[in-house]
Amino acid sequence: MREVDIKELSIKAVDLWMNRWLLLTAGTIADCNMMTVAWGSIGCMWSRPFAQIVVRPQRHTLKYIEASDSFTLCAFPEKHRKDLQTLGTLSGKDGSKLSKTGLTLQASKRIAAPSYNEADFILECRKIYRQDMDPHGFIDQAIQDNYPANDYHRIYFGEILSAYCA
After folding, report:
1. Widest CA span of the chain, in angstroms?
2. Of 10, 11, 61, 127, most Cβ neighbours within 10 A?
3. Confidence of residue 78 (pLDDT cuts 50, 70, 90)
């Protein structure tokens, strides 16, 4: 993997979120949790490069992201699609879901949250903002259809400190 200057980072952001998915990981290499995410954004906020993610309150990963000051977002070659499906459907509170995949952790270079040896794209992010989603802000009321249980996401912004591409 080669480090990419964040100011030079060029990605197909919509394709990355909608079609490739990303693996969100928080915690430390000794104690972490991960979940597959397909909603989020990457851009510039407060004059900083950022990644924005959302986590529902019932997700086990929420405990890790709340206790951590960093997180990683990793993308993988298509051959790992089934691993991402597994990590997006199983809960880490029921045991080691990572052991049910072919993915292996590696230490990140600038943050505590780990990344993956098999990743072909890695963002190392420092958590800088969080807020609970407020349904009163939905201008398009069809968005509410995503929340039949009213389990609104918590939104996190992470400053991108490092980016790596295969």
Report:
1. 43
2. 61
3. very high
Q: What is the Cα–Cα distance from 11 to 18, expressed in whole angstroms?
A: 13
Contact call for residues 37 and 100 (beta carbons, < 8 A):
no
Q: Which domains does the chain have, with CATH numbers?
A: 2-165 (2.30.110.10)
**Structure token digits, residue 136:** 């009163």
Q: Find all residues with CB under 8 Å of 17, minimum gap 6, and list them.
A: 37, 38, 39, 40, 41
Tokens of 144: 């509410």
- Cα gap 57→154, rounded to integer Å: 7
What pTM was computed for the model? 0.95
Contact of 27 with 127, CB cutoff 8 Å: no
- Burial per residue of 88-118, b for 16 or more beta-carbon CB atoms within 10 angstroms, e otherwise: bebebeeeebbeebebebbebeebbbbbbeb
